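Task 17 of the worksheet. Students: predict the tertiary structure of the chain below and write it out as structure tokens. Keep your answer in the requested format; marks are given for formatting as well as content.
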Amino acid sequence: MSSLITFENMKFGKLTVIEKDGEFFFIGNEIAELLGYSNYRKAVMVHVDEEDKLRSQIGYAGQMREVTLINESGLYSLILSSKLLQAKEFKRWVTKDVLPSIRKNGGYIRNQENLSKEEILANAVLLANNLITEKEKVIEDLEPKAKYFDELVNNHLLTNFRNTAKELHIPQKVFIQFLIDKELIYRDKKNRLLPYAKNNKGYFEVKEWCKEGSEAVGIQTFVTPKGRHYLLLLIGGEKTRDR
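Model answer:
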């Protein structure tokens, strides 16, 4: 599978890059012209080794054409043999700017003011698709870490009834009975304190626990930061009415 991308440079002109099976190719005659050769075909024939070029049909200048493509090695051969003063500058532009940009993003978005709307759109779509794929991969890699971090933070922010009562400066038994009276929690048949689902608006969380070195498991109700804030206001209101 191959893709064709065109670039424009104010100094050198139009450059076409074909990516085929992970390898970059260039149109031989086009490179020879950019490097100042007078006879493009002869330059490619003389200076580029046979193993560095191939004949291929591509969509070029609005139609299918059979052209000679050269790989990166062939590109360097034409650059080294060029008498153009800016040959080294051209090499730097291609090898330090264009190709790394394609490898990273799948496209090149600078210096395209002279491209057609269709070419700009094609480059933009290709770039967007590659960025989306890259972003999805990053998200996929980060999801397990994010989940672990969230669970770690949540476990540290949750407090049991005893510690919550201490924070609110209320005896634990009084605090628990207050929650039962307000129908925020209840005792089930196993004497476990559980939140009423209808009244639990993020105030409590029920967590499973497992005793280390034992097969014993169970559940325990914790108070969330939102729950502590709500209870602080609720208890404060009760104290105000009792005065």
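Marker's comment: The mean pLDDT is 79. The helical segments are 28-34, 40-47, 72-81, 87-105, 117-157, 161-167, 172-181, 225-242.
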